[in-house]
Amino acid sequence: MAVRAAPREGTRAIALLTIVGAFSSAIYLPLAAVLVDAFGWRVALRTMAIGAGVVLVVAAVFVRERVEPGAAPRRSAAPISLRRPEVVRFLVATALAGIAIGIVLVYQVPLMVGAGLPLATAATVAGVRGALQIVGRLPMTSMLARWDVRTVTRLAFASVAVGVILLGFAGNLWVAALFALVAGFGIGAWSPLRGIYADELFDRSRLGAAMGTVSMVSGLAVAAGPAVAGVLADLTGTRAWGVVIGAASAMTSVVILRRPPPPPNQPPNA
Known about the structure:
Layout (H helix, E strand, L loop, with lengths): L1 H4 L4 H12 L1 H17 L1 H22 L22 H31 L3 H13 L8 H7 L2 H19 L5 H29 L5 H30 L3 H17 L14
């Protein structure tokens, strides 16, 4: 939607949209803790589900598409195809990063509480982590002007990996604060980078379908990561598996997105 609204400034439009979205975690994570303490988790889930539903209905009714007259796709790229190695690497890295991000989102409060922080403090740190996602989004335009999207994405995934490791030792408030900063940057940066990377890989006439595919892969991974970590926690009696799986997944995504070697007869800088 952002790219179609501003086809000549797609990167800036995506970054601006996700900057606004960064404030949601700062509101809803502390609110969730308050609702759970006051009314229980069922009421908390119902309240948030109703709120999300109301917002989606309002958006469906009032948001209108505005296409710039005469705008043409910026490039002509190949369709969505798993025969393209760069597409496969992108989807695999997206899935692995989604596993790590899902573990952070689901287990950040339980891991901090298990490490020794009070529930209210852990929920506040989680909210701050959500607010600090803006740290990963504000400099996105300037970072992409200096480095290519692959390099910036690898930096974001590496930040998620470091954040997961810090989460495993977040019983100390200072370590928890550092986790909030580092993980907030990585998760915040990945939100616009997902669309910007897809915009680099696919023709804009297929960008909607491409983002649907990427979102499906990411959503399944975000759900699978905490589920696997939860099963292992039940079997072993420790949540440390979440930290191990999350950190390993995020670091593997960094490796997968490394620049592929040039063909045998092509110079390295070609």
